[in-house]
Write a structure and sequence with these properties.
Low-confidence stretches: none
Mean pLDDT: 89
Oligomer: single chain
Shape: elongated
Radius of gyration: 25 Å
Strand content: under 5%
Structural class: mainly alpha
Order of helices and strands: HHH
Number of helices: 3
């Protein structure tokens, strides 16, 4: 086994960057799902915050909106 010595901070950064890119490329599906979940969570938090700032309505009024008009 050969040993590799890192002589400076730039070499260390380059090594970490290359390793990180390789992991992302090998696990694309995992990272895609992770990003999707984060985006969904952010949207949910924003919706909850927006809902807290709006006027509350009662249950009957909500269900009236779903009634089929003939």
């Amino acid at each position: 086994m050969s040993e590799t010595f890192i002589h400076n901070e730039e070499q260390l950064k380059a090594l970490f960057k290359a390793a990180f890119i390789e992991v992302i490329e090998e696990k694309k599906d995992f990272f895609r799902e992770l990003v999707e979940e984060v985006i969904e969570e952010i949207a949910l938090v924003r919706a909850i915050e927006e809902g807290r700032q709006t006027e509350a309505i009662n249950r009957e009024d909500v269900f009236k909106l779903f009634e089929v008009k003939t």
